[in-house]
Structures are given as structure tokens and as C-alpha cells.
Amino acid sequence: MTPSLPASPAARTVPTATYRLQLQPDFPFSAAERAVPYLAGLGVSHLHLSPVLEAVPGSTHGYDVTDHRAVRAELGGEAGLRALAATARAHGLGLVVDLVPNHMAASPVHNHALRAVLREGPESPYARWFDIDWAAGDGTILLPVLPARLPEVRERMRVSDGALHLDDLSFPLRAGTEGLPLPELLDAQWYRLGWWRLARTELNYRRFFTISELIGVRVEDPEVFDATHGAILELVRDGVIEGLRIDHPDGLADPEGYLERLREATGGRCWTVVEKILTGAEPLPPTWPVAGTTGYDALRHVDGLFVDDVGADELADLYREFVGRAGDRGGSWEATARRAAYEVVTHDLAAETAALTRLAERICAADPDLRDHAPWALRTAVRELLVRVPVYRFYRTGDESVLTPEAARGAKAAFAVEEEASAVDAVRDLALGRSGDGPEHRAFRARFAQTSSALRAKSVEDTAFYRYTPLLSANEVGGDPGRPGIGPEEFHAYCERLARDWPATGTVLSTHDTKRSADVRAGIAVLSQCPEVWRELLDEVAGVHAPDAHLAWTAWQTAFGFGTPDAERIGPAVLKSVREAGLHTSWTEPDPAYERAVTDFVAAGPGRIPLRAASEAAFALEPHIRAHMLGATLVQLTMPGVPELYQGTEREYRALVDPDNRQPFTVGEDDDRTALVRAALTLRRTRPDVFAAPDSYVPLTVTGTAAQHCLAFARGRAGAAPEVVTAVTRLPLRLVEAGGWQDTELVLPPGRWVDLLDGEREFAGGAVKPVDLFDARPVALLSLRA
Predict the structure, then answer these.
(1) With left for phi above 0 and alpha for psi between -120 and 50, is residue 151 left, alpha or beta?
(2) What is the C-alpha separation between 535 and 540, in angstroms, rounded?
(3) Regarding beta strands 18-21 and 642-646, do their DSSP bridges make them parallel or antiparallel, or are they unpaired?
(4) 386 by DSSP, 3-state: which?
């Protein structure tokens, strides 16, 4: 190890702002190091790096970890990471790193721990790393990796150097089996090679969502925790890493226990946030020892500010009229999500449902009070309860606020006979921890919660969001397509809660996982203010034949938000959307003819026609889209929490779903947003106490005819007068239609206020007219003059 770095000023406090960089072989540590001076000049306090540990060679994301013991060589290794940290430190910046505790790559070639298990079986010291149900596999672990059924590929298999090879696949051999004939050799292994399609129903290890290439890790085991966190913890102790983003905590058996162990291991020195997706008004568990979430809840609230609920409802009506039965039966968001949940739990997560049923069977068979529940009844109860969990998962034993009596009654409706429906009560009691606390009882509680989170993610994020698309900007992680709008009062209440309970939580607008960047969403969200314009645009492009109406709506709205016709970028995003929706084609059951028709349609229409210029009305929307872009940016940068900028978003940034949004970072040309970003981040860096105090958020009063079109709040130090004011324009198109600001007034706190975006302008405390405040731009950032 190289010598420790000196302590940095940034390490003594939480970040004031972070900047996310996507590391990959084409953008290693050295490239990030060259970008440090520019990023420091923006005003951030920390760089946020995507995963840095060893991953599958060539991986562009790093979430497929292969070895927790080493920093990824393709990125520059530990020496490269330490050099980046030193350069960052010299410019006043610290490092935050993405940590992936839940899963690893299920690659026998690259994952040393899994390779040992495949070679040595359940007696391997690494067997405890993974949730493997050996009994379900007759003493073996299923590897669903073959491109076809075993008889079709067996002749291509060969044995050499102590391994079994098939094309570019390689598998270790159990000791003493290398000389056996191939059929006997295959039967003698601790693993069973199978066709990749068997993963859906036969898999007997826990995976990440429905991705069999990522195997779950049992970090709840202290030895596994120590083995998988040693390298990262040493970098924390040496001051190289000052913050951690915890990926997918809902996949863990005991998220709170893991976070407690992590806090103890880091000595509380790290600012830590969790990628926890909150649903609706769901709170983050208050006992978690973290600073907060990674910010998808903030994204939903900021985006919602700029959506008109009335227009969104009109778009939903128009969507049902336009799509008819071409979409998911043209129903409501709730019905679409429920249907998707049933499909996923019975199809994609069949193996997980089967594992829960086997656990329930064993528990019930050993308990006189739970006997005589048929396996089919237990399986039905598991399925019916899983689809009725309204959030990603529950955490507390006996949490009836999630698995409610109403949910149980709904689950029982799937049974024809009341006595058989009692299986629901048995499964519910197991899930809530009310039937015992033995090892298998605890395992059932954990696996039910883990499967619940996978079901929610797969059915909502990866299916229903692509099937119900009246306003695509609302279909973002943590969002609610059935209720996309957020009013000023609700937003203020949310910010006051953050400032009180989670003042150092993360906030985001664009990430490596957002389906559309914030600017694309802004372009789409403006349609909620003018659904009639959208109808006219659809009429204008009706001559471009689409395979179906749902695809046409989704593709044209994607193109409208993107802003410029580009088949090479829009095409893959639209193709991904139809595969995720699974209405006509899917990743596992592709329809080549339909997909070819999709590609041809995009090339002829959305990828060629400049939709935003297709009519005078659409062209006139540009200033209102810009108002949304600037307003959302300023609100996120000054609201409670630690704002994160995703690479490139300090300027106008239009990107679609990955891999489009994960391109190597480059420094671009400054624009008017860049100036706004620098002003806000410099303010946060020079006056951190103004933004960190629990009572530092003060909603400002707006009165008059157009009061709902102005959102304004002040920030200040604890117990002191406000020092910063943010004011933005909401729904500007509706504002124009209503006659402008008229008698509307914003009440500024006492003092003299200077506009940091235009230093020549000053305002006195008291009533100010928005028409004056916003005469140069639709947003204002004011600072109290000393």
C-alpha cells in the first residue's frame, strides 16, 4: 500500500455537492484525474465514482464485481485511484465511491469465490458467500449458461488444464474427475450446466432481480462482510475514500444490520447514502445509520413541480383514445402495474417464488399448527401476497402497515375454498415474523422481502413504466405515472421534512440509471401544459406508419423530449422500451419481424423528422422547456440535501436510457445553465452552514392571481435570518394563457438582496413583483448583501 493521504478539509463535513463520473476502460482514473481542475471550478466538493473494484473485463458500468480484494486494473488499479485522490485533494475535492454489496458477477472465469464453490461444492469456505439452495439442485448448483440444450452443445465441449471448456466459457472441475468420460464428468460436478432459459424456473441461487449473470452475496455473514469490504475499508482508513453510495440495499437480507456494521467498520467517517427507492409518502427507516437516500425521491418532487395535473389528466384521456387496445388494455396506471406484477411473479420470478414455497413447505411440515397446507396453496399465497406489497419491501418484523389485513383479504380471493385460503394467513405470518424465529423462519422473512423488492423493480420500473406512457417524463424510478404533479405546498412540506430529518441526504435529477435525462424529461413534461399541441403533432405525423399505436405514442414522445431527430440514439432506446414492455417482443422471446418494423419506423419518423419544429405551436414551447430546465436545476441545487450533478449536466444534456447516458465524460461548451450551476455551487461551498442546518428551509409567501406559478424559498443558518433565496417560474405556458403575473407578489425576507445571476440587480426586502424578478430569466438566485 502507498502512504496515507493527509486529511482533507472536505473529509470533516458532508459534501456540499458531488459530481458523478462513469468510469470504464475508455474513461479510467487517469482521465478522471485530467478532469479534476474543470470539476473543481464548478464548485463541487466531491467526485462520485462508479464502482472501482475488479469487474468483468470490458464492463462499462462496474456493477458486475468479480474480486473485492483489488481495485480494477482496467481503470488504473489502486495506484491510479490513489493518484486521482491526491490530485482531487490538491484541488480541494474528496472522493465518494459506489459500493456494491448485494451481488457479484456469476462468472466462473472471473469470480474467484464462485469458481472455488463450483470446484469444491458446499464444503468450500466460499460456499457461505452465496444463497445456494443445494437441496433444490440435488446437491448441485444450476448454471444456466448454455446457448442451447446440453445435447446440442456437448460435442463442442473439451477438457484441458483442469477445466471444462465450451466456446468462450470455462468451468473448474471437481478434483479427481478430469479423466472421466464426458457424460460421467458432467454428472460428477458440483454444478449442473443448463440452457439459459432454465434460469426462469430452475435457478437455485439468489440473483440480482432477474439477471442470472449476477449472483447475490450474503454480506449479512460477518466473515463474508469482512472479506468483501477489506479493500474499500482500507481506502477509507487511508483517506482515499470519504463517502459511500450503497447500491441496492433492498437486495440484502438485513439492510439495517449491514449499514450498522458498515458504520462501525468505517468509524463513522464516511458520508453514506443508500440507493433506496421510496414509494409515494413512504419514509426512509429512521433508524438507518445513513445520511439519506441517493435522491430519487427528490427527483420525483422536483419533476412534479413542473407538471400540470389538469393537462396530465387530459393527456391520459388522449392516450387511452389514441392507443386503444394496442397498449396494456388502455387501463389505469394502477391496473397496469398490478397486471405486470402478476406476470413477473409467475414468469420472470418463478424460481424465486418456488424457493419461497419450498421454505414455507419445510417450515409448515415441522410445525403442528401449520401442517396440511398443500404446496400449491402455499405457492398461491406467496404469489398473491407478493403482488400486494405496495412498496419495494418491508424492514420491521410484524410490519402490518405493508402486509395489511386488506392485502390478506385480497390474496384470499384467489382461492375457491375458504379453508384452503388459510394458507394466506400462514404465509403472511411467516413473512411478518410471527410464526417463530428459527433459521428457516428468518430465511423466509429475508427472502420474502428480497423477492418483494425484485418484483417491484422488475414489474414497475422495467415493465409497467414501458406499458403506461401518457406522460413519459413521469415514468422515472421513484415516480408515480398515475399522479405525476406536485404542488408548491406539497413540495415545501417535503423539503421541510428533509431539512428536519435528513439534511445531508442526496438529491439528483439525472443519473446513470434514469431512463431519460432531466432535460429530455423537461421537454416531455411541457406537454402537460398543452395536451392539445400534442394531439396536433400526432395528427401531423400520422402518415408515418407505426407497427402499433402504443409504440407510435411512445416513440414520438421520446423524440419530442430528445429534441433533435437522431435514429442512431433514439432507435436503441425505443427498441429497449418495446422489449421491456413485453407486449409484442421481449429480451427472452424476441419477435424479429416486429423489432425490424420498430427500427424501420424510427428511421422513417422519430429518427428523421424534427418533431419540435413540426408546427409553430411546438416551436413556441422552447422558452417554456428552458424555464423548466433552469428551474429544476436551481431548485435541486439549493433545496435541502447534497445535490449531485451527473456528468455533463452542468450544461444542456439530452440523453436516453443506458447505454446512451453512460458515454465517456468530456468537457463541453458552457451555456447559461453552466453559469447558474457555478453560482449555486459556489454559494454552497462558501456558505455550507446556510444549507446544512435542520431549520434552514423557509417557504416564502407568494400572493395574487398567479401565486401557484412561483415557487420560492429561503435558506439560512440555524436561528439566523435567511441569507439565500431561490425563486423559479412554474408552468409558464399556463401562466401566459392566464394573463401573466398581474397582481402577484413574492415577499422577500428583510434586507438588501442581490441577484447572483446578474450582479447588477438588487431588490429590497418585502413585496417584489415576479414580473420584475424574472424579467431577464425565469429563475432568480438572490443573496443577502452584507
Answers:
(1) alpha
(2) 9
(3) parallel
(4) helix
Identify which of 537, 520, 435 has the alpha carbon closest to the alpha carbon of residue 472: 520
Q: What is the pLDDT of residues 306-344, one digit of tens each?
A: 999 999 999 999 999 999 876 676 579 999 999 999 999
Measured between alpha carbons, how far is 750 from 418 in angstroms, rounded to an integer?
Answer: 68
Locus of grid cell 416513440: 555
CB count within 10 Å of CB 627 equals 24
| pLDDT higher than threshold 50 for residue 6 | no
Q: Please give the full DSSP string across 567-605, using - where no structure is assigned.
A: HHHHHHHHHHHHHHHTSS--SSS--HHHHHHHHHHHHHT
Residues 6+ apart with CB under 8 A from 43: 16, 17, 677, 678, 680, 681, 682, 684, 685
DSSP code string of 112-148? HHHHHHHHHGGGSTTGGGS-B-TGGGTTSEEEEEESS
| 10: region left, alpha or beta (phi > 0 left; psi from -120 to 50 alpha) | alpha
Q: Given strand 292-293, what is the order of strands in its sheet?
A: 292-293, 271-274, 243-246, 94-99, 46-49, 18-21, 642-646, 506-507
Are 687 and 466 contacting, i.e. CB atoms less than 8 angstroms apart?
no
In this structure, are residues 255 and 272 in contact, taking their beta carbons and an 8 Å threshold? no
365: amino acid identity, one letter: A
Nearest by Cα to 279 from 334, 328, 214: 334
Q: Quick: pLDDT tens for 437-483.
A: 999 999 999 999 999 999 999 999 999 999 999 999 999 999 999 99
What's the rounded Cα separation, in Å, for the pair 761 and 757?
Answer: 9
Cβ distance 96 to 244 under 8 Å?
yes
**Least confident among 23-32, 121-130, 146-155, 689-698:** 689-698
Reading the block at residue 521, the C-alpha cell is 424529461
Neighbouring CB atoms inside 10 A of 549's CB total 18
- pLDDT at residue 11, as a whole number: 42
Are 385 and 403 in contact by the 8 Å Cβ rule? The answer is yes
What H or E segment, with its residue span, contains residue 546? none
Per the CB < 8 A criterion, the answer to whether 755 and 608 are in contact is no
In the DSSP assignment, the letter for residue 303 is H
Looking at the predicted structure, is the pLDDT value of residue 719 above 60? yes
Kindly tell me if the per-residue pLDDT of 196 is higher than 80: yes
Q: Which of 696, 675, 649 is nearest to 781 (CA)?
A: 675
Q: 625: left (phi > 0), else alpha (psi -120 to 50), else beta? A: alpha
Which residues have CB under 8 Å from 372's CB, separation 6+? none
Range with lowest mean pLDDT among 36-40, 615-619, 681-685: 615-619
Q: Take residue 335 and report the three cell numbers written for it.
A: 391496473
DSSP string of 4-53, one letter each residue? PPPPPGGGGS--S-EEEE--BTTB-HHHHHHHHHHHHHHT-SEEEEPP-E
Cα distances (angstroms) measured from residue 578 to each of 475, 571, 593: 14, 11, 13
Residue 680: all three cell numbers together:
449555486
The residue among 29, 84, 34, 11 whose CA lies nearest residue 666 is 34
Task: Specify whether the CB–CB gap between 66 and 56 falls below 8 A.
Answer: yes
Average pLDDT over residues 556-584: 96
Residue ranges in 582-697 assigned as alpha helix (H):
592-604, 616-619, 622-638, 672-686, 688-692
Other beta carbons within 10 Å of 289: 13
Give the Cα separation of 642 and 504 in Å (integer). 6
Beta-strand relationship, 191-195 and 141-146: parallel
DSSP 446-506: HHHHHHHHHHHIIIIIIIIHHH--SSGGG-STT--TTS----HHHHHHHHHHHHHH-TT-E
* pLDDT tens-place string over residues 146-161: 999 999 999 999 999 9
Residue 285 is given by DSSP the state P
